[in-house]
Specification:
The complex is a heterotrimer of chains A (343), B (299) and C (285).
Chain A lengths: L2 H22 L8 E6 L4 H19 L4 E6 L2 H9 L6 E3 L3 H11 L11 H4 L2 E2 L2 E6 L28 H17 L4 H13 L8 H10 L5 E5 H11 L4 E4 L3 E3 L5 E3 L1 H7 L2 H10 L3 H9 L3 E2 L7 H5 L5 E3 L1 H5 L2 H8 L5 H9 L1
Chain B lengths: L10 H7 L3 H4 L3 H30 L3 H7 L4 H34 L5 H13 L2 H12 L6 H6 L8 H11 L2 H14 L2 H8 L4 H30 L2 H7 L9 H10 L3 H33 L7
Chain C lengths: L20 H28 L2 H10 L1 H34 L5 H7 L2 H4 L2 H12 L4 H8 L8 H26 L2 H9 L4 H9 L4 H17 L2 H4 L12 H10 L3 H33 L3
Helix pairs in contact in C: 1-14, 2-14, 3-8, 3-11, 6-8, 8-11, 9-10, 11-14, 13-14
The chains are: A alpha/beta (343), B mainly alpha (299), C mainly alpha (285).
Protein name (chain C): Sulfate transport system permease protein CysT
Pfam family, one (chain C): BPD_transp_1
Organism (chain C): Methylobacterium haplocladii
């Protein structure tokens, strides 16, 4: 067996190869590559958008551009931007996550809301209910979620933007329902979270738990996510219930100034964000069941699935986003207190 | 430590030497109950999950299975996983051999402490393993400002993934080789040196042949772990599609896209790797038990 | 172990004709420091910014305390289970011959080689209420997935190889003549087992237990898919670190990580003590 000698060479060659490979992996960053750091449910959406933008950009400038995407819980994604992922743009699930990047890392300008139309919201969404076929528990409105035998699946509001919208939507409903009584609204949300058997870290995890694993009776979730379940798991297993009132959910987009200036991609990144407001992109949003800013750009059959319901803005009830985040989700906030009181 | 050979390795010899069975073994029904318990336990906890992976992967036929590997993202994940292992494993191989040489061939103060420190990554939570690199190389970390200034990307890029992988597989080679080289002592190397060999020559012609099977064994396990690491890599990856997703992360992504068949298909690739690892490992153990570890068959 | 020779007085290392000590030890220490010690030090430095009282505050926060309790409590149970069944498996694999023994022997290392994320999705789909095993368990009123039971299952899976492989070599080293002597002197088989065979195995069982415990406490990949991740019920400490990071609470994440690191050290120390004791008591590791 000649193994010994060749092994000796292998060791040397491997060590040499390792250093070579290390040298080779220093990322060569072409100018025509953008990174969009996004939240969990937009995977399918940005596949379409990114392809459409690349085509559009090629036609306009002749430059080939690749838009890469990273998806995860909105908070976790904001954390990676703070820790230095070279994102050109962020498209997150809730304004407070972009505020956090601006505050902690200063990579986004604090007045990011003013840089794009509609406070950086090319589309909005809302929270609807996904229930089992035939709606056996008779869930019609937010109040039905706290009926004794109803089990609710919702993600952790600490890590998931969708989880936070669900939380705020339930709170807002109870607040309006009880003549703006904060204590009663808090108690309602407290009862709701007692009926949650599984608290996943992201909206996607919750959907898998509900749809694939068969747990729970109702899944309050992003409107787009509910329709996606329809398409992926079949309409014969679930029903979508649209409650009479729900929340005006705001998933904003912003430019990461520090990164685009360093990478020299500001022009492309700004064009990308502007592209989100074009008729072409707006139609794609509607196709994926997000509520487009320009309804007239969308196809009729897509709009038919996005009925006009009474939507309330949480800022109107609780004030600024700094306050909303602090009051509800920061350490020692309402969500933390619920757990302590409940168990 | 005395050399121990499992009796079952020599069934024929064992049969003739065996004293009256009832004296040194349990009665039949106890024996079969214990065997049944052990087999049932392993089947339930280990074999069933493995079977599930393949069953789910092929749930919608071979076409759907193969489709999972035609995606560019899947190719990128396979490539990144191979690159990561191709750097991390040789790195730990060189480190392990060097450390084992220093520790096994010499007596010095603080040796036991050094062994404990090399062992440390083994008992650190994978999440903590990722976190520490964020704390060093992240924008908010110790070296963050310096790295930004010099435009060097460590975490959320290949170097960070490689570092986290090196950390979690750090003890594998050293741990395997230290007891082996200690048991082999220094007599043969001393003889080679007396006959005029240089240190490097003695290492290559004497030490390396002695530890080759143990080394291969360690590299095998190190590689399996390097390709399969999830927690630590997940913290430092950033999950950029087609760029910083390794195979285990790709499994999670597909799973979260309701693409269960594809998810289990990619998982089955990793499970297949695990099976190949186990087969080679078992063959090594059966044929070269004494060359792999000090004493027989110890990890 | 090499035979310990008498230590010379106040000398860093014993003389030897083998070359390369400076080079290899230097390289070892450099790499160890860069890859392991410095990053870990960064964690400790970051956490020490909080002070002992700050870490204590984090540790006693009800949600953190409960996550630590889940991690340690369930891991303890899982390590006990893994050790109990692992010892039986080790005994069966070394002492008995039966068809398929070698295959089963190889299977024991599966959790070692199988990526944790793969194990996680496989376990989740098996033990979910509509899964193969979960369905049967549901019939007898046991909810496995998305409860602490799920965490327990994943931790047993992870810990089993350690429990088996630390005990196995010692069983094969047992001198059968001692058992014969015990039997000839009139002891029953049970008596021989409990008084002669088992006591020397205790250190190995403890070591395996400690390793399985340490792995269980730190485990992340296989658990998050099956745990349910419900605060105060089925949320594990490593997940809470990830959650704290998502909340931009670096101090909290570091504090939990430091507590877990301290536990890792303690477990390693305990293993070393067990082995030292075993060397004194039984003359081998």
């Amino acid at each position: 067996m000649r193994f010994s000698n060749s092994l000796g060479h292998t060791v040397v060659a491997a060590a040499f190869g390792a250093s070579l490979a290390l040298a080779a992996t220093v990322p060569a960053r072409a100018q025509s590559e953008l990174l969009n750091v996004s939240y969990d449910p937009t995977r399918e959406l940005y596949k379409d958008i990114n392809a459409a933008f690349a085509e559009d950009w090629k036609a306009k400038t002749g430059e080939t551009i690749t838009v890469r995407a990273a998806h995860g819980g909105s908070g976790a994604q904001a954390r990676t931007v703070i820790d230095g992922i070279p994102a050109d743009v962020v498209t997150l699930g809730i304004p407070s996550d972009i505020d956090a990047i601006a505050r902690i890392s200063k990579k986004i300008s604090p007045d990011w809301r003013t840089k794009l139309p509609n406070e950086g919201l090319p589309y909005t969404s809302t929270v609807v209910f996904l229930v089992r076929k035939g709606n056996p528990k008779g869930v019609k409105d937010w109040g039905d979620l706290v009926k004794p035998d109803v089990k609710v699946i919702t993600p952790n509001p600490k890590t998931s933007a969708g989880g936070r919208w669900n939380f705020l939507a339930a709170w807002g409903y109870a607040y309006e329902q009880n003549n703006k009584d904060v204590e009663k609204a808090n108690a309602f949300v407290g009862q709701l979270y007692k009926q949650v058997p599984v608290l996943d870290t992201g909206a996607r995890g919750s959907t898998v738990t509900f749809a694939q694993r068969g747990l729970g009776d109702v899944l309050p979730t992003w409107e787009n996510e509910a329709y996606l379940v329809f398409d992926e798991f079949g309409r014969d297993k679930f029903d979508i219930v649209i409650p009479p009132t729900s929340i005006y959910a705001e998933p904003p987009v912003a430019l990461v100034d520090a990164n685009v200036d360093k990478k020299g991609t500001r022009k492309q990144a700004e064009a990308y964000l502007q592209f989100l407001y074009t008729d072409q992109a707006q139609a794609i949003f509607a196709k994926h069941h997000y509520r487009p800013l320009k309804r007239e750009a969308a196809k009729k059959e897509d709009l038919a699935l996005l009925p006009e319901i009474k939507l309330f803005k949480i800022e109107d009830l609780q004030g600024s986003w700094d306050d909303i985040q602090k009051k509800n989700f920061d350490n020692g906030g309402l969500f933390d207190q619920l757990g302590k009181a409940g168990r | 430590m005395s050399e121990a050979i499992a009796p079952a390795d020599f069934p024929a010899a064992e049969a003739s030497l065996r004293p009256p069975a009832s004296v040194v073994t349990e009665t039949g029904w106890v024996r079969w109950t214990l065997i049944a318990v052990a087999v049932a336990f392993l089947a339930l906890f280990l074999v069933l999950p493995l079977v599930t992976v393949f069953a789910q992967a092929f749930a919608k036929g071979i076409g759907a299975y193969l489709a999972a590997f035609s995606e560019p993202d899947a190719h990128a994940a396979i490539k990144l996983t191979l690159i990561t292992a191709a750097i991390a494993v040789p790195f730990n191989l060189v480190f392990g051999v060097t450390a084992a040489w220093a520790i096994a061939k010499f007596q010095f103060w603080g040796r036991d402490l050094l062994v404990t420190l090399i062992d440390l990554p083994f008992s650190v939570s994978p999440v903590v393993s990722g976190l520490i690199y964020v704390l060093v190389f992240g924008s908010q970390g110790l070296l963050g400002p310096w790295l930004i200034e010099h435009d060097i990307q460590i975490i959320f890029a290949v170097p960070g993934i490689v570092l986290a992988t090196i950390f979690v597989t750090f003890p594998f080679v050293a741990r395997q080789l230290i007891p082996l080289m200690q048991e082999q002592g220094t007599v043969e190397e001393e003889a080679a040196l007396t006959l005029g060999a240089t240190g490097w020559h003695a290492f290559r012609t004497v030490t390396l042949p002695n530890i080759r099977w143990g080394l291969l064994y360690a590299v095998l396990l190190c590689n399996a772990r390097a390709m399969g690491e999830f927690g630590a890599v997940s913290v430092v990856s950033g999950h950029i599609r087609g760029l910083t997703n390794t195979l285990p992360l790709h499994v999670e992504i597909l799973y979260n896209e309701y693409n269960f068949v594809a998810s289990f298909a990619v998982a089955s690739l990793l499970a297949g790797l695990a099976l190949v690892t186990l087969v080679i490992k078992s063959v090594l153990e059966w044929r070269y038990a004494d060359d792999i570890a000090a004493g027989a068959r110890r990890h | 172990m090499a035979t310990p020779s008498p230590r010379p007085k106040r000398r860093f290392r014993q003389p030897s004709v083998i070359p390369g000590f400076g080079l290899t030890l230097g390289y070892t220490l450099t790499v160890l420091s860069l890859v392991v010690l410095l990053p870990l030090a960064a964690l400790v430095v970051r956490a020490s910014g909080l002070g002992i009282s700050g870490i204590w505050d984090v540790a006693t926060d009800p949600r953190v305390a409960s996550a630590l309790r889940v991690s340690f409590g369930v891991s303890l149970l899982a390590a006990l289970t893994a050790s109990f069944f692992g010892s039986i498996v080790a005994w069966v694999l070394t002492r008995y011959d039966f068809p398929g023994r070698r295959i089963i022997d190889a299977v024991v290392d599966l959790p070692f080689a199988l990526p944790t994320a793969v194990a996680g999705i496989a376990l989740a789909s098996l033990y979910a209420p509509n899964g193969l095993v979960g369905e049967q368990l549901a019939k007898v009123g046991i909810e496995a997935a998305y409860t602490p039971v799920g965490i327990f299952i994943a931790m047993v899976f992870i810990g089993l190889p350690f429990a088996v492989r630390t005990v196995q070599p010692l069983i094969s080293e047992i001198d059968k003549e001692v058992e014969e002597a015990s039997a000839i002197l009139g002891s029953t088989r049970l008596g021989t087992l409990t008084k002669v065979v088992l006591p020397p195995l205790i250190p190995a069982v403890l070591t395996g237990f400690a390793l399985a415990f340490a792995r269980g406490v730190g485990e992340y990949g296989s658990i998050i898919f099956i745990a349910g991740n419900l605060p105060y019920v089925s949320e594990i400490a490593p997940l809470l670190i990830v959650i704290k990071l998502s909340e931009f609470d670096y101090a909290g994440a570091c504090a939990i990580a430091t507590i877990m690191l301290a536990i890792s050290f303690t477990v390693l120390l305990a293993i070393n003590l067990i082995q030292a004791w075993s060397r004194r008591r039984f003359g081998y590791v």
